[in-house]
Amino acid sequence: MDRRLRARSGARTLRCATGVLLGELERPVKCLECRAPRKAWKEDYRYDECGFRHITLAGVEVARCPRCGSCEISIPHLEALHRLLARVLIEKSTRVTGDELRFLRKSLGWSGSDFAKHMGVAGETVSRWENDAAPIGLQADRLLRFLVAQGRLTTGYPAERLVKIDPKKARATRVTLIPQNEQWSVRAA
């Protein structure tokens, strides 16, 4: 069976799974494969395409063709959905799994080697984390969550600075802070 996932960015072919029928929609839909009329309805859908299991989307539109068996799933607001999934993952109380780590890394827009540089580890370490061959360390897990949480909220601290931190030197930072217009700012040295 063929299944298509529709989103604002276009469609891509996916394999089909069975959902839980919630109710039929009123508008007719034509099959993208054979152009036969098909009906659409709302189903609960297991969203394996995000890269990890146990994610169910409640009440998404599904259209199945009775003639050729193809299936199309329409997932609205895909980017917002992925941001919400990332937030759920960084707020969980246990360490992230390999699949979850891969999803979060991709949400940052980084390749495995880019991620390794930002985390200060070897590329092989990232591979072991993502394949669950080795658990991610507690400090690395916390840093990942911080990077994801700050990814869309701040522009004042580019993540590229993390790569430039000297791992051998530690030096106390002297800072003078001054209040200005009900906010704090750093006084130039």
Folded structure, characterized:
There is one protein chain. Residues 1-25 have low confidence and may be disordered. 30% of the residues lie in helices and 26% in strands. Helix 1 packs across helix 2 and helix 3 (112-119) packs across helix 4 (123-130). It has helices at residues 78-90, 98-107, 112-119, 123-130, 138-150, 160-163; strands at 2-7, 10-15, 20-24, 29-30, 37-46, 56-64, 71-74, 177-180, 183-186. The N and C termini lie far apart (66 Å).
Query: Which value, in Å, is the CA radius of gyration?
Result: 23 Å
Q: What is the H/E string?
A: EEEEEEEHHHHHHEE
What form results from the Cα inertia axes?
elongated
> What portion of residues belong to β-strands?
25-35%
User: Kindly state the mean pLDDT as a whole number?
Assistant: 76
Distance between the termini: 66 Å
How much helical structure, as a percent, in the residues? 25-40%
Which spans have pLDDT < 50 for at least 5 consecutive residues? 1-25
Layout of strands and helices, then pairs:
Layout: E1 2-7, E2 10-15, E3 20-24, E4 29-30, E5 37-46, E6 56-64, E7 71-74, H1 78-90, H2 98-107, H3 112-119, H4 123-130, H5 138-150, H6 160-163, E8 177-180, E9 183-186
Parallel strand pairs: 1-7
Antiparallel strand pairs: 1-2, 3-5, 4-5, 5-6, 6-7, 8-9
Features:
alpha+beta, 189 residues, 9 strands, two-stranded antiparallel ribbon, 434 Repressor (Amino-terminal Domain), 6 helices, 30% helix
